[in-house]
Amino acid sequence: MLKVSVFAVVTCGLFSLVGCGSKQDANKSNFQSAIQDYLDTTKGVCVMVPAKEVPFTLQKTGGMNFINEPEKAAALVSAGLLSAKDTEVKAAFGNQMVAGVQYSLTDEGKKYLVKGAAGNLGNWDAFCGGKYKVKEVENFTQPADMFGTKISQVNYLYEVDDAPAWAKQPAIQAAYPSLQRDLNGAPGDKAVLVATSDGWMHERLFKSKGG
User: Fold this and answer.
1) CA 179 to chain centroid
2) What is the number of helices (H) and of strands (E) in the chain?
3) What value, to the nearest 5°, has the Cα angle with vertex 37 and ends 192 and 49?
4) Domain chopping of the chain, boundaries
5) Coil, helix or strand for 13?
6) CA dist 190 to 83, 145, 148, Å?
7) Euclidean distance between CA atoms 106 and 54, whole angstroms
8) Helix (H) or strand (E) holding 169
9) pLDDT digits (tens, 9 = 90+) for 76-87
10) Which of 21, 36, 204 shows the shortest CA–CA distance to 136?
11) 54 versus 20: which is more confidently predicted?
12) pLDDT tens, residue by residue, 144-194
């Protein structure tokens, strides 16, 4: 028993020398791991299809365009994700038929289309690829109690690994400015982390697990 106790004391001392800590500790290393755990559940960088799903049609001129649908569709065609074919569509105003374009998935587009991944209220489809990776945790607030839960807000920098070639095309980045921000420079974001019995967890993962 004495030998076991001495060994335990020595082992504990050795771990303390290398900075062994707990997952519950509020530090940059634990926070980076918690954010990465969440990012690993996402689909990477995504660009929303300018319609709820593919195939879809748009009026060539005029019509009601709320999110620059024609520009986004043209960029997706230039990137090889969609194909375009002239057709006729019902005019936005009145009952007459007018010139339009039908957009369909290409074989390349099928590789990246994710149903309901746009993140908008309508759960539109999106083209997604690559993987978000935490580069650095810049700073965080001291953990504080909120509604019986201990939380901390974290500011961090990230990058995108293995971004698909289409995401780097100028036409796509011009039509989707947020994509350009993600792929160029050192973009930053915020995350709210929750202290749990298993360590720190991103609030979205916490809620998805019933928290």
Assistant:
1) 10
2) 7, 11
3) 85
4) 22-44+130-208, 48-127
5) helix
6) 37, 19, 22
7) 10
8) none
9) 999 999 999 999
10) 36
11) 54
12) 999 889 999 999 999 999 999 999 999 999 999 999 999 987 899 999 999
Q: Which residue, among 142, 133, 194, has the nearest Cα to 27 in the 3D structure?
A: 142
Residue 57 has a CB neighbour count (10 Å cut-off) of: 16
Q: Could you tell me the two tokens for 60? A: 């060539």
Rounded Cα–Cα distance for residues 67 and 44 (Å): 22
**CA separation, residue 30 to residues 4, 42, 115, 120, 197 (Å):** 31, 19, 32, 30, 13
Whole-angstrom distance, CA of residue 57 vs CA of residue 104: 9
d(CA 207, CA 40): 16
Task: Kindly write down the DSSP assignment for every residue of 72-86, as one continuous string.
Answer: HHHHHHHTTSEEEEE
Question: What is the C-alpha to C-alpha distance for residues 145 and 195, in angstroms, rounded to an integer?
Answer: 10
Alpha-carbon gap, residue 58 to 84, rounded angstroms: 10
**Beta carbons of 100 and 60 less than 8 angstroms apart:** yes
Show the tokens assigned to 135.
């580069």
Which secondary-structure segment (H or E) carries 132? strand 131-140
Pairwise CA distance, residues 205 & 145, whole Å: 19
> In the numeric block, which tokens belong to residue 206?
């916490």
Residue 68 identity:
N
Q: How many CA atoms lie within 13 A of 192 on its CB side?
A: 10
Report phi then psi at 176, rounded to 5.
-130, 80
